[in-house]
Amino acid sequence: MLLDHAQGMVFRPPSEANSFILRITLGCSHNACTFCAMYRGIQFRTRPLEKIRCIVENAAQRSPDIRRVFLGDGYALMLPPENCCPS
Ligand code: SF4
Predict the structure, then answer these.
(1) 8 within a domain of the structure (yes/no)
(2) Residue 31 C-alpha to ligand 1 middle, in angstroms?
(3) 50 in a structural domain
(4) Which residue range is the domain that position 27 belongs to?
(5) Model confidence pLDDT, tens digit, residues 11-65
Protein backbone atom coordinates (compact mmCIF):
# COMPACT_ATOMS: atom_id res chain seq x y z
CA MET A 1 0.00 0.00 0.00
CA LEU A 2 1.29 3.44 -0.91
CA LEU A 3 1.55 5.93 1.89
CA ASP A 4 -0.24 9.12 0.97
CA HIS A 5 -1.94 10.88 3.82
CA ALA A 6 -4.86 12.94 2.57
CA GLN A 7 -5.46 16.33 4.12
CA GLY A 8 -8.58 18.22 4.96
CA MET A 9 -12.20 17.43 4.42
CA VAL A 10 -13.79 15.77 1.44
CA PHE A 11 -16.38 18.06 -0.17
CA ARG A 12 -19.25 16.40 -2.05
CA PRO A 13 -21.31 18.64 -4.34
CA PRO A 14 -25.04 17.90 -3.93
CA SER A 15 -25.25 16.88 -7.59
CA GLU A 16 -22.66 14.19 -6.88
CA ALA A 17 -24.56 12.51 -4.07
CA ASN A 18 -24.13 9.07 -5.61
CA SER A 19 -20.69 9.56 -7.14
CA PHE A 20 -17.41 8.15 -6.03
CA ILE A 21 -15.21 11.10 -5.00
CA LEU A 22 -11.74 10.52 -6.40
CA ARG A 23 -9.26 13.05 -5.07
CA ILE A 24 -6.63 13.35 -7.78
CA THR A 25 -5.42 16.56 -6.16
CA LEU A 26 -5.49 17.69 -2.57
CA GLY A 27 -6.54 21.26 -1.92
CA CYS A 28 -7.08 23.86 -4.63
CA SER A 29 -4.49 25.11 -7.11
CA HIS A 30 -6.13 28.54 -7.15
CA ASN A 31 -7.24 28.89 -3.53
CA ALA A 32 -7.85 32.61 -3.87
CA CYS A 33 -11.61 33.06 -4.36
CA THR A 34 -12.70 35.46 -1.66
CA PHE A 35 -16.01 33.63 -1.05
CA CYS A 36 -14.47 30.18 -0.62
CA ALA A 37 -12.65 28.82 2.40
CA MET A 38 -12.92 25.13 1.59
CA TYR A 39 -9.21 24.51 1.14
CA ARG A 40 -7.67 27.36 3.10
CA GLY A 41 -4.73 26.12 5.09
CA ILE A 42 -4.20 23.11 2.85
CA GLN A 43 -1.12 23.11 0.67
CA PHE A 44 -2.08 22.17 -2.88
CA ARG A 45 -0.50 19.01 -4.24
CA THR A 46 -1.20 16.41 -6.84
CA ARG A 47 -1.51 12.76 -6.04
CA PRO A 48 0.90 10.34 -7.65
CA LEU A 49 -0.60 8.34 -10.50
CA GLU A 50 0.24 5.11 -8.68
CA LYS A 51 -1.77 6.25 -5.68
CA ILE A 52 -4.73 7.14 -7.89
CA ARG A 53 -4.51 3.76 -9.59
CA CYS A 54 -4.47 2.04 -6.18
CA ILE A 55 -7.58 3.94 -5.04
CA VAL A 56 -9.46 3.12 -8.27
CA GLU A 57 -8.59 -0.58 -8.09
CA ASN A 58 -9.61 -0.71 -4.45
CA ALA A 59 -12.91 1.07 -5.15
CA ALA A 60 -13.65 -1.23 -8.09
CA GLN A 61 -13.19 -4.29 -5.88
CA ARG A 62 -15.21 -2.95 -2.96
CA SER A 63 -17.98 -1.23 -4.91
CA PRO A 64 -18.32 -2.73 -8.39
CA ASP A 65 -21.60 -0.87 -8.92
CA ILE A 66 -19.93 2.57 -9.09
CA ARG A 67 -21.03 4.31 -12.30
CA ARG A 68 -20.07 7.94 -11.66
CA VAL A 69 -16.80 9.44 -10.49
CA PHE A 70 -16.23 13.03 -9.40
CA LEU A 71 -12.65 14.27 -9.55
CA GLY A 72 -11.55 16.39 -6.60
CA ASP A 73 -10.39 18.44 -4.97
CA GLY A 74 -10.72 22.08 -6.00
CA TYR A 75 -9.95 22.76 -9.65
CA ALA A 76 -8.71 19.22 -10.19
CA LEU A 77 -9.05 19.50 -13.98
CA MET A 78 -6.04 21.84 -14.12
CA LEU A 79 -3.91 18.71 -14.28
CA PRO A 80 -2.63 17.75 -17.71
CA PRO A 81 -4.10 14.44 -18.93
CA GLU A 82 -0.74 12.67 -18.67
CA ASN A 83 -0.89 13.18 -14.90
CA CYS A 84 -4.21 11.36 -14.66
CA CYS A 85 -4.09 8.61 -17.27
CA PRO A 86 -1.71 5.71 -17.59
CA SER A 87 0.19 5.79 -20.87
S1 SF4 B 1 -12.20 25.43 -4.70
FE2 SF4 B 1 -13.08 26.58 -6.41
S3 SF4 B 1 -14.15 28.30 -5.43
FE4 SF4 B 1 -12.71 27.46 -3.89
S5 SF4 B 1 -10.82 28.67 -4.10
FE6 SF4 B 1 -10.63 26.87 -5.43
S7 SF4 B 1 -11.33 27.58 -7.47
FE8 SF4 B 1 -12.09 29.03 -5.92
Answers:
(1) no
(2) 5
(3) yes
(4) 20-83
(5) 999 999 999 999 999 999 899 999 999 999 889 998 888 999 999 999 999 999 9
Count up the domains in the chain and report the number.
1
**Contact at 8 Å (CB) between 72 and 22?**
yes
Q: Output the residue whose Cα is nearest ligand 1's atom 8.
A: 33
Ligand 1 atom at minimal distance to the Cα of residue 29:
6
Q: Is residue 5 part of a domain?
A: no
Q: Please, which residues bridge with residue 53 across strands?
A: none
Residues with CB under 6 A from ligand 1: 28, 30-31, 33, 36, 38-39, 74-75
The closest alpha carbon to 7, from 34, 46, 36, 33, belongs to: 46
